[in-house]
Amino acid sequence: MILQLFSTFFVIFVLIFVGMITRHIKILNEEFTPALSNLLILVTLPALILHSLLTQFTKEMFLDALTLVCFGVLSSFVGYFIGLLLLALSTARRHLEDASKRTFLMLCAFGNTSFLSIPIGFSLYGEEVVVKIILFDLGVSIIIWTFGIKLISSGGKNRAGESTLKNILNPGICALLLGIFMVMFELQVPSFFIKACGLLGSATIPMSLIATGALLYDTGFHRKIKWKTIALLSIGKLIFMPLFFIFIVLIFDFSLSLKKIIILESAMPSMILSTVLAEKYGSDSNLAASGVFWTTLLSILTVPLFLSI
Q1: Which pTM value belongs to this model?
Q2: CATH number of the domain that 294 lies in?
Q3: Mind listing the pLDDT tens digit of every residue in the chain (309 residues)?
Q4: Domain total for the chain?
Q5: Which GO biological-process labels does this protein carry (predicted)?
Q6: What is the rounded distance in angstroms from the CA atom of residue 28 to the CA atom of residue 24?
């Protein structure tokens, strides 16, 4: 089992490495990388979500859907409190400015719960998990664009309040809500539309991995690295976080599929968006970039181990 997991992860990270190489040799330049990300976010991912919902989702899964959203919210706060605990117990806090502490907490709180977890989940468990991953990510997104922005903003001031709803209701979430509406009200959808969504959506997995590699290249290289802080972050995000949720899913009588998604999402490295938010709201973008890069790299080892439990 564990060899199969590592084999799957090797394939996934080969594609991420392809993204890094193509960015390095300028096949993906500064203009094309954002365009690739936009194509993914605005077109192929919503198509994949719609196809998954229209072919895999049923009314009976609605309770599981609410559970996953709640766990997405919970995971953000659990990560935040793990970060607070690590800062309180570590001597590293003495060497960190307030901006770096805020960034550290954001890196602990929010994982890469869509860009990376969708390809991993799809590769390991099939298309039926895509909807569940997006539902978990919806819970995370709600906290990112409310509490998260307030956390990362200089002085704790939420300067993005007017765009909160717009950010939460991104194209992927809109596709999710539209698909659930279609299923719940048993709307008849033409087969050609479902097939078109499936064809478009099939491009999401390789594109998201290549885009992840390109974005990691931009954020992770040529940065001054605070090794002690990165080590502390990696322990909190990649070890304590999944261990907590493994304990939780063992307590509750969830379905095996639900348990797999919760453990997968809780084991994800820090979200790539952290670098953008840290730079935009006056926090430590250098720490954010190196934190995202190294937790993603180390997750090659940690995620398969936790998924094998």
Answers
A1: 0.90
A2: 1.20.1530.20
A3: 677 788 888 899 999 999 999 999 999 888 888 899 899 999 999 999 999 999 989 888 888 999 999 999 999 999 999 999 999 988 766 778 899 999 999 999 999 998 899 999 999 999 889 999 999 999 999 999 989 988 988 554 445 554 667 778 889 999 999 999 999 999 999 999 999 999 999 999 999 999 999 988 887 665 677 888 999 999 999 999 999 999 999 999 899 999 999 999 999 999 999 988 888 888 898 899 899 999 999 999 999 999 998
A4: 1
A5: transmembrane transport
A6: 8
